[in-house]
UniProtKB/TrEMBL annotation:
Any Pfam family hit: Cyt_bd_oxida_I
The organism's taxonomic lineage, starting at the top: Bacteria, Pseudomonadati, Pseudomonadota, Betaproteobacteria, Burkholderiales
InterPro entries: Cyt-d_ubiquinol_oxidase_su_1
Membrane topology, from the record: Multi-pass membrane protein
Location relative to the cell: Cell inner membrane; Cell membrane
Family, as annotated: Belongs to the cytochrome ubiquinol oxidase subunit 1 family.
Name of the molecule in the record: Cytochrome bd-II ubiquinol oxidase subunit 1
Length: 465
């Protein structure tokens, strides 16, 4: 019964996490994009940027609402399905989640009302400040959530006291070995996701020749940012991978289907494609490039890469083919984004930025539209690699997953899991219904910024009161 409960608890958390992560990543990126757009409006006073801010903010509030609601069931599971984990790690993990709620979510939630409803009620400087606070809050949320998760990957600053973890150094625990790469890689993934969505939606309107003068601006702005972000994200992914091989060799070997540790003075071969077989402790088949894995995993021609065969079977991650191909899907999509961004930038430069020349590039615009789901797939694959690759540990090297689950009836988990599934279907259906209405309606090109109150009008209003 406990084993069944463990598998069900893991499945339920996977389901809620996979659904929930879809929304915060767009909130982070959209709020940052809106901050850039609003700064352009405040600095240039061009009404088109005001209209952009009003248009894209509707997608933000729709996404924010679903993200908040979908995240509640996920956090409740720490107290229901994962009681031993919460008790074991509560002194640090619980505090970090508390920091996220108090520092990030409250800041974000406190200013989002002003950001959405304050266009005609507060001066534009105050509104810009509110937008900045929403963007800051969402980014702080990424920081604390990834601190908690990074600590589970590479725990530091703690000691085992009477069967529980006690924090001995908060600085070391927060700035654990994985933290810098985990936070930065996730934050850039969120930015990349939002910019791909914005560029894809803008390309959709351009493809249909609906308000092209309006959407060419958001398309070019998103493209400009992506030309910078996509190569940085690839570099962060590469650096994070090197860190994984150093701190979690089982995960590194699993995502590369690497079984035999290379001898000193030789390079480890990299498999371009393979089918890892945990039962037989080998790859059923493999297409390999000699010596390349040492370069990728250690940035050295003869760097030693530990193979799965030298790791006890009980400490090897499960679902090796899933890990192997999830990693390749994530990395492949990242390279595809960079190629698409630079190809588009080259095409625009060749066309000298002319709108008609861009509208004539129908295959290029279609590629952007079709790419909209890809960043979400990449993020989900990245989290599969990160979480499944850490198994069989929930806190790496300190607490096994099988010892972290609550001993509750499988039927209780099954019932709540079915309820959450129905709830999430309703949520995503509602989101697509309202998003479709938003897309169909398009931007309001008659909107004008509210007049800034003069000193005389403020004094007159004060005198009346």
């Amino acid at each position: 019964m406990l084993l069944d409960a463990l598998h069900l608890a893991r499945s339920q958390f996977a389901m809620t996490a996979i659904f929930h992560i879809l929304w915060p990543i767009l909130t982070v990126s959209l709020s940052a994009f809106l901050l850039v757009v609003e700064i352009l409006w405040v600095r240039t006073s061009e009404v088109v940027w005001y209209r952009h801010a009003r248009f894209w903010s509707k997608l933000l509030i729709l996404n924010f609402a679903v993200g908040v609601v979908s995240g509640i069931p996920m956090e409740f599971q720490f107290g229901t399905n994962w009681g031993p984990f919460s008790e074991f790690t509560g002194q640090f993990f619980g505090n970090i989640l508390g920091f996220e709620g108090a520092m990030a979510f409250m800041l974000e939630a406190g200013f989002v009302g002003i950001m959405i409803l304050g266009w005609t009620r507060v001066p534009k400087g105050v509104h810009l400040f509110a937008t900045a606070m929403v963007a800051l809050g969402s980014s702080i949320s990424v920081f604390w959530i990834m601190v908690a998760n990074s600590w589970m990957q590479t725990p530091a600053g703690v000691a085992l006291v009477d069967g529980k973890l006690a924090v001995t150094d908060y600085v070391k625990a927060i700035f654990n070995p994985d933290m810098a790469w985990g936070v930065s890689h996730m934050w850039f993934a969120a930015l990349e996701t939002g910019l791909m969505v914005i560029a894809g939606i803008s390309a959709y309107y351009l493809l249909r020749r609906r308000n092209p003068e309006f959407f060419v601006r958001s398309f070019k702005l998103a493209l400009l940012l992506l030309v910078f972000i996509t190569p940085v994200q690839i570099w962060l992914g590469d650096s994070s991978g090197v860190d994984v091989f150093a701190t979690q060799p089982a995960k590194g070997a699993a995502i590369e289907g690497h079984w035999e540790t290379n001898a000193p003075g030789t390079g480890a071969s990299w498999s371009l494609l393979a089918w890892p077989d945990k039962a037989n402790q080998r790859n059923d088949w493999s297409l390999e490039i000699p010596g390349l894995l040492s370069v990728l995993g250690t940035h050295s021609l003869h760097g030693q890469v530990k193979g799965l065969a030298d790791i006890p079977v009980a400490d090897q991650p499960p679902a090796l083919p899933l890990l192997y191909y999830a990693f390749r899907a994530m990395a492949g999509i990242g390279f595809l984004f960079m190629v698409l961004a630079f190809w588009t930038a080259y095409s625009l430069r060749k066309a000298r930025g002319q709108l008609e020349a861009l509208l004539a590039q129908r295959k290029l615009l279609l590629a952007w539209v079709l790419a909209i789901p890809l960043p979400y797939i990449a993020v989900e694959c990245g989290w599969i690699v990160r979480e499944v690759g850490r198994q069989p540990w929930v806190v790496y090297g300190l607490l096994r997953t099988e010892n972290a689950a609550s001993a509750i009836a499988p039927m209780a988990i099954t019932g709540s899991m079915a309820m959450f599934a129905v709830f999430y279907v309703v949520l995503i259906s509602s989101f697509f219904y309202f998003a479709r209405r938003w897309l169909k309606k398009g931007p309001d090109l008659t909107l004008l910024p509210p007049a800034e109150p003069t000193r005389q009008s403020v004094a007159h209003t004060a005198a009346e009161h």
